[in-house]
Amino acid sequence: MQCGLLGARLAHSYSPQIHQLLGNYSYRLFEVEEAHIAQFLNNTDFRGLNVTIPYKKTVIPFCQELSPQAQKIGAVNTIVRRDDGTLIGHNTDYFGFMSMAQKSGLSFAGKKVLVLGSGGASNTVCTVLKELQANYVVISRNGENSYNQLHLHQDCAIIVNATPVGMYPNTGISPIDLSLFPKLEGVLDLIYNPAKTKLLQDAESRHLTAMNGLWMLVAQAKESAQWFTGCKIDDSHIERIYCALQTQMRNIVLVGMPGCGKSTIGHALGKALNRPFVDADDEIVKTAGISIPAIFEQSGEAGFRTIETQVLQQITAKSGTVIATGGGCVARSENIPLLRQNSVVIWIQRPLEALPVDGRPLSQANKLSLLYEKRRPLYETASDWVIENKNSIENAVEKILAKLTGEHP
User: Fold this and answer.
1) Is 56 a catalytic residue?
2) Sign of the CA dihedral running 15, 211, 137, 150
């Protein structure tokens, strides 16, 4: 049985991995220009299709029937070819966002919810929020409820981002300032790449419920697979696939003082997990074309930090990579969101007396205890876990592997 995803640009899609875990059918990516949509739908031998932007409305005229959900939302993201050759269009994003809303643990009934964006994704969100009896308001660039009128909605309890603002590759920006909403309880962002947009990181820093769109992606795929195969798939598979995909997608970033063992541990960890390993300092040398001491000599610490941020922007946007960072990368506040956006961040600790200083300009120029005290709160802010590197490298790697699998040695 041939199934797949129809869209314009699909290079970064996770749908094939998800559907491989859902059913015994082939699943391909179909990148098609809009002018060829009719030819594709009429002449391609497929059983089922997912449809993504910008074609969720484009495909509607080619469907001989629409499901009630597709009619309500006015968009189709799943097509099935019936035995007589006709097409039925459905919208599984409805189920996906409903499942995401329930998974978040937030209470929606009677609460004011701001929905950012007025496009197709927003229509889906609003349809679900209506069923959940929420009092939703759509925020758009123009009109009565624009971003210039946010002061009228300081009583909102939940924000749902249905815009692409903050999505890879344009990360590090947020569509809204959360400090405007003192009664806010949670933020849902339909974006799943990066895993933590700036909006979600801001929500986490305020100790609010924060959830990205990966659960919605998997949940809608599960319902799509039911349409493709005609077989019921238990909802428990959503969490199984979500956890597997989350583990596969996230980077492992190591931070800590210079000489604490990040590079050696990272290299060994990459081998143990069969993941690529990237050393940020090596990438900085490649980018600059000279050694790190030479960068400091020619451009000072400020020049080095500028190159370091450029490198971190590139390597932290990857997925499934082990990354060792330079000891001072946390010194720039803009680097911390980069480290956290797609990764679990592990602080490698090692006794100061065991830290080497050769070839490390800042370690040589500063008393290590003072440098550590300055950086310690920054490592705490950036990291999710702490791993001590007191014994062997193998022992440190074992501790990380145990944490990754949910064990606590």
Assistant:
1) yes
2) negative
